[in-house]
Amino acid sequence: MQAFLKTIAANRSGKPTGIYAICSAHALVIEAAFEQAKADGTPILIEATANQVNQFGGYTGMQPEDFRHYVYNLAVAVDFPTDQIILGGDHLGPVCWQAESAETAMEKSHALITAYVAAGFKKIHLDCSMPCADDQTLLTDDIIASRAAALCATAEKTAREHFGASNIIYIIGTEVPPPGGTNEDIPHIEVTSLSHARQTLETHKAAFTVEGLESVWPRVTGLVVQPGVEFSHASVIHYLPHKAEALKALVRQVDHIVFEAHSTDYQMPETYKHLVQDHFAILKVGPQLTFALREALYALSYIEEYLFPADARSGLRSVCEKCMIDRPQYWQKFYQMDEKEQPLYRHFSYSDRIRYYWPDEKVQAATERLLSNLESTHIPLPLISQFLPEQYHLIRSGKLDNAPKELIKSKIKQVTDTYAQACWKQCA
User: Fold this and answer.
1) What are phi and psi of 185, to 5 degrees?
2) Burial readout 270-284 (b: 16 or more C-beta within 10 A, e: otherwise)
3) Which of 183, 273, 177, 159 is nearest to 225 (CA)?
4) Between vectors from CA 257 to CA 16 and to CA 94, what angle results, nearest 5°?
5) What is the pLDDT of residues 332-353, one digit of tens each?
């Protein structure tokens, strides 16, 4: 955590440096991220969300301890030093149990926090911003802060019991954008006001005091605010630095705090640099990583169609479509549009709901067959030029091997490199 804290301190002092969080559980995404960090000589922050990994398995089927082993094994496979890995828990709170009573949902949230901390996660986002079944539609800041502080107390207790002491870093914030992007196109979005951000800090600090956590408060290093960035199914709202001018002044007025920006996917390269310069020192990226993964896999599936007879092909795209139709729970409520438009959004939306289907057994089998087919032959460069033009140029220049997995990871690293340029290389 020292590298993380050093980065935060440098950003607060005015240096354009930050850290990006890899919010994905896909093996190829994580491997690509490790390769990026290894090439850059930087630590890596990998986060799991509450709905992705929890004490009941989440949609990945992994509990926090399982996820830690999974990530560490991938690191060993690509020779990345495990002591350079920072594990974070994102949206830890009642998000998975909003349909239950607040009492029941918070009991499960405490068990969730216990599991994450016991597994060695060191960066914890306390997110109690969502109402439960018997709450009012909008929670007051006092209730949100009180619940977050109670979860923090559980985290501290767990850390002491398992490790003898706690060095956990906490992230708080009530203006949390919906995970995975918004459900509808929006023309603009409001930046968090300076007064609201200050009130969030003051309310949480008071709640920490009530829980006897005054000594823990200095380890609250990140505040989630809305910098004015968002993406929907087919549009992106870009960061406009002048709109956050008042907000960024808060960092100079308080101790040990920088901003954490969620839903930063699909911004322009210069935008990330401006965000880091304006004290959004922690940038979260998730759907754009698996969006790039899907782009690469689909490109390879088109290549496969030119190289293999129909009965030998993986049929990856049609397998994905059938899987999403058979199990619509991960996309149906998000794509409320004319039925004729739904196939476009199921496969190509920025919100990338297809990412929930990569762990499916049939999709995995089709993916493995695709990769096996293409590994058994030489992929002609003209086909790579047609479907993966950036990777074509890297192969021609001797910087990339002409191999299916390398092509996929290269596509993913186009995303991670953009973040790395903003977070680690502005000061280089």
Assistant:
1) -70, 135
2) ebbbbbbbbbbbbbb
3) 177
4) 120
5) 999 988 889 999 999 999 999 9
